[in-house]
Amino acid sequence: MTTNLNTFTGEFSYTVDTKGRVNIPAKFRKVLSADNEDTFVITRGMDPCVWVYPVVVWQKIENDLKNLSSLSAINRTFVRNTVRYATPLIYDGQGRIQLTTNLINYAGLDKKTLIIGMVNKIEIWNPERLKEIDKKNMKIDSTAYDDLAEKIII
Amino acid sequence: MTTNLNTFTGEFSYTVDTKGRVNIPAKFRKVLSADNEDTFVITRGMDPCVWVYPVVVWQKIENDLKNLSSLSAINRTFVRNTVRYATPLIYDGQGRIQLTTNLINYAGLDKKTLIIGMVNKIEIWNPERLKEIDKKNMKIDSTAYDDLAEKIII
DNA sequence: ATAGATTGTGGGTAGTTGTGGGTAATAATA
DNA sequence: TATTATTACCCACAACTACCCACAATCTAT
Q: Residue A129 region, left (φ>0) first, then alpha (ψ -120 to 50), else beta?
């Protein structure tokens, strides 16, 4: 029987339907603590994918943003770019969230998607893009990758 | 009477049934400390086999992952590749875990499997594959093997 | 040696999950 | 304001999974 760790792990293949909806894996929905009230915040990932935060995790980010002084131009830019693509969502009766066209375009999503648990957030990928990015990063930085593996994998 | 050391040792032959279930050897189940709550995390091994972690061991890994900054692309890649194949599981009433098709394919499992204790984790192998890998590695690195033996075997 | 418990393996079934589409309410556009 | 597009909320259904029971083989203890 599968269970959960209150973190997001594993990958799942889903489809974005014609209305721009994607399923959130049932396993991930179960991971959400009650104080999330079934709410996520979706935004641009640093990679070309959609990041999906449970709302309480996102609120931590917002809180840190609040503490940045608006006197500094770079702070203002950072706050703007972090927040401008963020949309809070509740999933529907079938467990799906409605993506925005903006984010669908940014991540290049098209029918087949890969949803990946990233411990405290979720990523939604176009599988093709992920393959490219992965290859590129490993080429650039494979020694750094090996160092991480050596430190962390038991 | 046999007893145990609270570590995983020994090898056992089991079958993956048509539903993708494998037994966890009763001895290994008894080794789990109470705080594991009968939960394992299965994931890709670095060899073509399935790695099975007791949940508390896995959580140590997750914790290290959480402390990696998402600003670095290689960090994101590492977290993603570490977590994306990981699935938490509880074994069923008969002591079996349900493998994912993804991992069955990765490890090339097919009916007969070899379950091997690896001190703090468990490996599930296709016996044929293990033989090949073993032979290959010994050929490449037999002097390194001897060095390790010299250091470690008393 | 024998009875009882444990262990490994198989299969049935009810409930869950992913996916599609319909319709009414809301928002956007002309 | 009238018309069109978008969104929210249903219902439907096939595929899959969790949970249950069964049973033979092995082990344990008296």
A: alpha
